[in-house]
């Protein structure tokens, strides 16, 4: 059984989309193994977005991702990483297909509602980062 890390970003929480997003994950046949709401800080964001921390827009990411709570989840199932990426849709919501979370609910790349691990290896790293050893 493959596991992935999924995080509902502050805009998903502020727009009250938690239930609708969780329903889509479960309807796909994936299992939500663990879920928690928490607030991010700059230290963990520098680790999580290490590939972006030297970019000029990184302060905007920090401001956005610390603007409210997030919901982190461990999601499992057959091909969980690929399945989550598929139901999320393209990173740019304007390119995301109708029927995907981003295609149906988001308008801007900056506010694209959800993060999901992009590989099994990164899922393991992100699960450890946000949940410790589970």
Provide key terms for this protein.
alpha+beta, 134 residues, single chain, Alpha-Beta Plaits
Structural summary, described in words:
The protein has 134 residues and is α+β, with helices and mostly antiparallel strands. The protein has one domain (2-131): 2-Layer Sandwich (Alpha-Beta Plaits). 42% of the residues lie in helices and 19% in strands. It has helices spanning 10-14, 18-27, 42-48, 58-65, 80-88, 101-105, 120-131; strands at 2-8, 31-38, 70-77, 114-116. Strands 2-3-1-4 form a four-stranded antiparallel beta sheet. The protein is globular. The two termini are 15 Å apart. The mean pLDDT is 95.
Q: At the third CATH level, what is the topology name?
A: Alpha-Beta Plaits
What is the first-to-last residue Cα distance?
A: 15 Å
- Major sheet, described briefly? 4 strands, antiparallel
**Subunit arrangement of the protein:** single chain
User: What is the assigned CATH homologous superfamily?
Assistant: Nucleoside diphosphate kinase-like domain
CATH architecture: 2-Layer Sandwich
The class by helix and strand makeup works out as alpha+beta
**Count of discrete structural domains:** 1
Taking pLDDT < 50 over at least 5 consecutive residues as the criterion, the unreliable ranges are none
Mean pLDDT: 95
Find the count of extended strands (DSSP E, 2+ residues): 4
Radius of gyration, in Å, reads 14 Å
Mass-distribution shape = globular
Strand order in space, largest sheet: 2-3-1-4
Beta-strand content bin: 15-25%
Order of helices and strands: EHHEHHEHHEH
CATH class: Alpha Beta
């Amino acid at each position: 059984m493959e596991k992935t890390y999924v995080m509902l970003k502050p805009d998903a929480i502020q727009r009250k989309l938690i239930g609708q997003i969780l329903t889509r994950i479960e309807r796909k046949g994936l299992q939500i193994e663990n879920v928690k709401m928490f607030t991010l800080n700059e230290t963990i964001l520098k680790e999580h977005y290490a590939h972006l921390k030297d970019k000029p827009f990184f302060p905007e990411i920090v401001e956005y991702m610390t603007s409210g709570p997030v919901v982190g989840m461990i999601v499992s199932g057959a091909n969980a990483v690929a399945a989550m990426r598929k139901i999320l849709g393209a990173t740019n919501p304007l390119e995301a297909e109708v029927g995907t979370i981003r295609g149906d609910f988001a308008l801007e790349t900056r506010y694209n509602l959800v993060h999901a691990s992009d590989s099994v290896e990164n899922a393991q790293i992100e699960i450890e980062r946000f949940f410790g050893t589970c």
